[in-house]
Amino acid sequence: MIRDAPVKFRIMEVFEEGGPQWNYEVVPKIMEEYGMHSHHEQQMVNYDIIEMVSAGFLEEGESVIDEEGKFNKGHLLTKYTITPLGIATVDDLKKKVRHYE
Asked: Out of the domains of life, which is the source (predicted)?
């Protein structure tokens, strides 16, 4: 793990370490690690994941409407996977960042 990493770096690590995961699984993990508690911060982490799809680091898998309120009732739950570009980027960061544990 890269100590004190920017949130987006850590998101890629989580997907690299854990394989395909739903946004409702990853977002709380990131929030806990970074001491985030608000609904706004929850949405920002979710948005970071969406941005990483646009950049090609993650890709979307299946999606369902959150009918139970697992994350945000009535909204989309999406399963994401890290891409080969994302894996290469994480590996490169691990080589270059001083605080890798």
From this structure: Archaea
**What is the DSSP-derived secondary structure letter of residue 13?**
H
Per-residue pLDDT tens digits of the chain, which is 101 residues long: 656 678 999 999 999 999 999 999 999 999 999 999 999 999 999 999 999 999 999 999 999 999 999 898 999 999 999 999 999 999 998 887 766 55
Question: Which amino acid is residue 17, in one-letter code?
Answer: E
67 C-beta neighbours (distance < 10 Å), count: 9
3-state secondary structure at position 48: helix
- Whether 61 is covered by a domain: the verdict is yes
Write the CATH number for 89.
Answer: 1.10.10.10
Give a yes or no: residue 100 inside a domain. no
Amino acid sitting at position 89: T
Question: What's the number of domains the chain is made of?
Answer: 1
- ∠ CA(13), CA(81), CA(95), 5° rounding? 30
